[in-house]
């Protein structure tokens, strides 16, 4: 029976199943979206927020594809990219190809990876939308994937799943939808963040592109320090650095912890191969 090798990894609380096709051949008839759904299922699979598929690249050291737990493919994932870099591990500095473009990364210490992020785009400040009969002010920005950032007080009391779902599917953000970040200012160098993640369709312990989005909006809206913003999430602390040149933001970096949890193998007997069987 054929077996598929995988690595379970976590980056600041976001967990991933990593499939390296450079090392482990995947059957050509295998559906990657269905594979991701099966692997990410927490009760009957390995369990994860998403699946990272690493492939050979002619343009970079490797290519990373990210599939959400619902099988949808995302353009980019900051925490996933840091995990992929640590998994690749043979070079301290690497270049990675993604759907969102090319990224550069560096392993800065034991289990620490820094990513040079793409410059943000499509910034829309102070949008007022109605969710569940309530007016909410949001800030929209694309940091590789779309994010709606909402500043709140009493972050721990926020119903992230309910409000986040309403914003994620709001007409304002169709057809792509958006991730949703709830942010509370701590001081001029630190914020707290909780994220409703598109594709996971619920709250996750962290979000790398969300940390970047939240840090940039915090500096623009609240004039926090641009030397470096500490983004506190349930899964850990992420550091975001960037330079502000007038109204422009450039040289954006995301740094944080990534680590291997364990390695394993699964049999090709998931529902993704056309079988009705749902076991590993």
List the main descriptive attributes of the protein structure presented here.
Diaminopimelate Epimerase, Chain A, domain 1; 280 residues; 18-stranded mixed sheet; alpha+beta; 2 domains; 47% strand; disordered C terminus; 18 strands
Characterise this structure.
Mean pLDDT is 90; it is low at 271-280. The chain has two domains: 3-111 and 260-273, Diaminopimelate Epimerase, Chain A, domain 1 (Roll); 121-256, Roll (Diaminopimelate Epimerase, Chain A, domain 1). 16% of the residues lie in helices and 47% in strands. It is of the alpha+beta class and 280 residues long.
Number of domains: 2
CATH topology label of the largest domain:
Diaminopimelate Epimerase, Chain A, domain 1
Overall geometric form: globular
CATH class of the largest domain: Alpha Beta
The CATH architecture of the largest domain can be named as Roll
> How many strands, which pairing sense, and closed or not: the largest β-sheet?
18 strands, mixed
Helix and strand content put the structural class at alpha+beta
Q: What low-confidence regions span 5 or more consecutive residues with pLDDT below 50?
A: 271-280
Helix content: 10-25%
Quick one: CATH superfamily of the largest domain? Diaminopimelate Epimerase, Chain A, domain 1
Distance between the termini: 12 Å
How much is the radius of gyration in Å?
18 Å
**Helix and strand string, N-terminal first?**
EEHEEEHEEEEEEHEEEHEEEE
Number of helices: 4
Strand content: over 45%
The overall pLDDT average reads 90
Q: Count the strands?
A: 18
């Amino acid at each position: 029976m054929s077996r598929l090798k995988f690595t379970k990894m976590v980056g600041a609380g976001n967990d991933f199943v990593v499939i390296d096709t450079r090392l482990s051949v995947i059957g050509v008839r295998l559906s990657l979206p269905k594979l991701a759904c099966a692997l990410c299922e927490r009760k009957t699979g390995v369990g994860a927020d998403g699946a990272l598929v690493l492939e050979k690249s002619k343009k970079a050291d490797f290519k990373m594809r990210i599939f959400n737990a619902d099988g949808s493919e995302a353009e980019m994932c900051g925490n996933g990219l840091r995990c992929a870099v640590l998994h690749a591990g043979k070079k301290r500095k690497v270049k990675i190809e993604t759907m969102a473009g090319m990224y550069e990364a560096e392993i800065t210490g034991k289990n620490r990876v820094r990513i040079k992020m793409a410059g943000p785009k499509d910034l829309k400040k102070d949008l007022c939308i109605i969710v569940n009969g309530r007016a909410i002010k949001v800030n929209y920005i694309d940091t590789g994937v779309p994010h709606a950032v909402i500043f709140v007080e009493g972050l721990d009391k926020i119903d992230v799943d309910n409000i986040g779902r309403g914003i994620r599917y709001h007409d304002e953000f169709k057809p792509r939808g958006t991730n949703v970040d709830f942010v509370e200012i701590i001081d001029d160098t630190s914020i707290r963040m909780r994220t409703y993640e598109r594709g996971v369709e619920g709250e996750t312990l962290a979000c790398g592109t969300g940390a970047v989005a939240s840090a940039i909006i915090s500096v623009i809206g609240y004039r926090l320090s641009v030397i470096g913003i500490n983004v506190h999430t349930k899964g850990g602390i992420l550091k975001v650095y960037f330079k502000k040149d007038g109204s422009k933001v450039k040289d954006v970096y995301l740094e944080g912890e990534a680590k291997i949890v364990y390695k394993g193998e699964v049999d090709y007997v998931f529902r993704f191969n056309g079988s009705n069987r749902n076991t590993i």
